[in-house]
Amino acid sequence: MRDMRYHFADGSSSAVWMVRMADEAARAELERYRVEQAETWLKGCKRLVDMERSMRALAESQREMADGIGTVDYTKPKTKSPPRADAIPEAVARCMEVASDFDALACDISERRAEAARALANMDSPIEAAVLSRHYLLGDTWESLCTSFGYSWRGIMQLRRRALLHAYDVMPHSERDPRHRAL
User: Fold this and answer.
1) Is 83 a residue whose pLDDT tops 80?
2) pLDDT per residue over 129-172, tens digit each?
3) Alpha-carbon gap, residue 24 to 129, rounded angstroms
4) Is residue 87's pLDDT more than 50?
């Protein structure tokens, strides 16, 4: 009986080729999974940083509102009635409430940020660690990273993908999904 498989010039058969293709597909899927896991972890860190900024802005606005209650600007015409007697204690109470929420959140965020910074510092490539730290922990845009590192958009996106792939190796195990969703 004749062998029905197609043989390539290098002597390998179509069955070997199919095994190689399946191996490459599995490797590519694993790489996508690792990049996705690292990006999810770092985006969570970035959300916390953004939350800290918004809480800081809220605390600042509450403080500015409390500062403006007791002052009178005699250079402007009178446009509103004077503040109520309980306006200052209410403003102080709101400021205290926002400040206590901010302190609790800032403590948690600074711990998570420090943990992420330590993990990224353990990466083999300092430029990959710097790019991820500046974008996800400091809030720089990809465009600003292109100019400061001297990369094109395509180059910084390729660096980002490589960096995320390597960040998976240093990210905390508690942040990883225990099983790939395809399994």
Assistant:
1) no
2) 999 999 999 989 999 999 999 999 999 999 999 999 999 999 98
3) 27
4) yes
Q: Which residues of 60-74 are buried (b: 16+ CB within 10 A; e: fewer)?
A: eebeeebeeeeeeee
How far apart CA 47 and CA 109 sit, in angstroms, is 10
Q: Identify the bridge partners of residue 7 per DSSP, sorted by sequence position.
A: 13
Neighbouring residues of 60: CB distance < 8 A, sequence distance ≥ 6: none
Q: Say which residue the tokens 């990883």 belong to.
A: 176
Residue 53 clears pLDDT 70, i.e. is over it: yes
